[in-house]
Design a protein that fits this description.
The complex is a heterodimer of chains A (119) and B (223).
Chain A (H helix, E strand, L loop, with lengths): L2 H12 L15 H10 L3 H21 L7 H11 L3 H14 L4 H14 L3
Chain B lengths: L1 H18 L8 H6 L3 E4 L3 E2 L6 H15 L3 E2 L2 H10 L5 H4 L4 H8 L3 E15 L2 E14 L5 E13 L8 H19 L3 H13 L24
Parallel strand pairs in B: 1-3, 1-4, 2-4
Antiparallel strand pairs in B: 4-5, 5-6
The chains are: A mainly alpha (119), B alpha/beta (223).
């Protein structure tokens, strides 16, 4: 089932329930990826969690839709931990552009990474 | 289609009336500061379940983001706090709220206390409880701008919770309890509690800047 159909169904189901609003974002399996990260600290667990986030980000980039708050930053963080500072910075920047509330933190993280990078 | 609208309207009226007796919380401080961003720090755990805070963290971002707020990624936040030498939840509530603004640029910080994260067994049935208290603090003034608590209880008879019924009767409640302790997934309850805390009428969180009813829903929270 596509996420669009799922969202339409959710909206339809919500019509009968008060206090239930249509989703602002498509969360995909983001919460599951967080769960796996928390539950399985092993390398394979972390890789599995990254794979979910990676698929989510690639799809959003390809289809040009808005990822939920924190997703680009979280993705950047995982890239950084994998030893990919340049790619990490790209996604920290994307987070700052998409959500201006994050700019302060993203700028501070980016400048720290750049200070540490060999020149 | 018309009848669907009618039904929805009717339901809306009914639930409004049902809620009319619940006293409204004081939202004056909230609207004075109305945050755009929320920093969710690792919860304070009042239960004996050591894994509760970590698993709880995986369920808390979505409901607050869906309410229209910018929510900082929880694990990145946790790791930065550890870097700052503030790993323990007990210590976090002692931290000057302004420090969260200086470090993260967050408008508000959310402190959660997990009050219950447990399964109780009565012969062939079990009951899972998740309860949490939520406190949102403005990082400029240090004032508490929103506070609520939420409890979700899920009862399941022998048939519901996997391997129940006859098997449950045979293996006995004690063994079953041991089995359940390993496999109980509290996440759906935590998700439900978080969502209810944020969305409930009169006591929930008014919409944030990315919400469709941002600054239009004040009447729901004010007398």
């Amino acid at each position: 089932m596509t996420s669009r159909t799922l969202r339409a169904l959710t909206l339809w189901a919500c019509l009968g329930v008060t206090g239930c609003a249509p989703s602002l974002y498509d969360w995909g399996e983001y919460e599951d990826s967080l769960y796996i990260r928390q539950k399985d600290a092993s390398e394979s667990g972390q890789a599995e969690a990254f794979k979910i986030l990676d698929a989510m980000v690639q799809e959003a980039d390809a289809k040009n839709y808005r990822v939920p708050p924190g997703v680009y930053a979280d993705y950047g963080y995982l890239l950084f931990r994998q030893g990919k500072p340049d790619q990490a910075i790209t996604y920290f920047r994307k987070e700052a552009v998409l959500y201006k509330e994050s700019k302060y933190l993203m700028d501070s993280i980016i400048s720290r990474i750049e200070q540490k990078k060999p020149r | 289609m018309k009848s669907v609208y009618l039904l929805t309207a009717l339901l809306a009226v009914l639930s409004l009336e049902a809620c009319a007796t619940i006293p409204k919380s004081d939202y004056s401080k909230f609207f004075e500061h109305h945050p755009r961003s929320i920093l969710i720090v690792p919860p304070f755990n009042k239960t004996t379940a050591v894994d509760a805070p970590g698993f709880f963290l995986t369920t808390i971002s979505k409901p607050f983001a869906e309410r229209g707020y910018y929510v900082f990624p929880v694990f990145l936040t946790r790791d930065i706090l550890i870097d700052m030498g503030l790993p323990d939840e007990g210590v976090l509530s002692q931290v000057q709220p302004q420090r969260f603004r200086e470090t993260f640029g967050a408008d508000a910080v959310l402190f959660v206390t997990i009050k219950s994260w447990s399964t109780t067994y009565v012969l062939l049935s079990s009951s899972v409880t998740v309860e949490a208290a939520y406190k949102l603090v403005d990082t400029d003034s240090g004032e508490v701008i929103w506070e609520t608590s939420q409890k979700v209880v899920q009862d399941s008879s022998g048939g519901g919770g996997g391997g129940g019924g006859l098997v449950g009767a045979l293996v006995g409640a004690a063994i079953k309890a041991a089995l359940h302790a390993v496999i109980t997934d509290y996440r759906p309850l935590a998700q439900q509690a978080n969502s209810m805390a944020v969305r409930k009428r009169r006591a929930g969180l008014p919409a944030g800047p990315y919400g469709s009813d941002y600054q239009k829903d004040y009447a729901n929270y004010q007398d």
